[in-house]
């Protein structure tokens, strides 16, 4: 999977209400900040728990990669996104 595709997959799994699919996008020791002012959560299972609230509302996510900077197996992707109901 290329770095550009990760956010597209996130949007598709969100649309499909696929919690396991969302979780599969995160490494076992990843960190995720669920929203502004919220504390980070760690690990795939903690992230999946935090993402349950995303699935509770009838929302869709629009994404588009603006820039990708990759060095070996690490990448930083700047993305424009919007969650709509």
Can you describe this structure?
There is one protein chain. With 85 residues, the protein is of the alpha+beta class. The protein has one domain (3-84): Nuclear Transport Factor 2, Chain: A. The strands form 2 sheets. The protein has a two-stranded antiparallel ribbon. A two-stranded antiparallel sheet has the order 3-4. The termini are far apart. The protein has 3 helices and 4 strands; from the N terminus they run H-H-E-E-H-E-E.
Structure, briefly:
The chain is of the alpha+beta class and 85 residues long.
Distance between the termini: 28 Å
How many runs of DSSP E, i.e. beta strands? 4
The top-level CATH class is Alpha Beta
Shape: globular
The order of strands across the largest sheet is 1-2
Low-confidence stretches: none
Number of helices: 3
Global structural class: alpha+beta
| Name given to the CATH architecture | Roll
Fraction of helical residues: 25-40%
Count of spatially separate domains:
1
Percent strand equals: 25-35%
Question: Within the CATH hierarchy, at the fold level, what is the topology?
Answer: Nuclear Transport Factor 2, Chain: A
* Biggest beta-sheet profile: 2 strands, antiparallel
Spell out the helices and strands N to C: HHEEHEE
* Rg (CA only): 13 Å
Mean pLDDT: 86
């Amino acid at each position: 999977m290329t770095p550009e595709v990760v956010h597209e997959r996130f949007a598709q799994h969100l649309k499909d209400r696929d919690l396991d699919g969302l979780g599969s996008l995160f490494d076992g020791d990843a960190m995720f900040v669920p929203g502004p002012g919220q504390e980070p959560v760690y690990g795939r299972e903690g992230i999946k728990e935090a993402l349950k609230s995303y699935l509770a509302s009838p929302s869709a996510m629009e994404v588009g990669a603006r820039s990708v900077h990759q060095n070996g197996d690490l990448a930083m992707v700047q993305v424009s996104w919007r969650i709509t109901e």
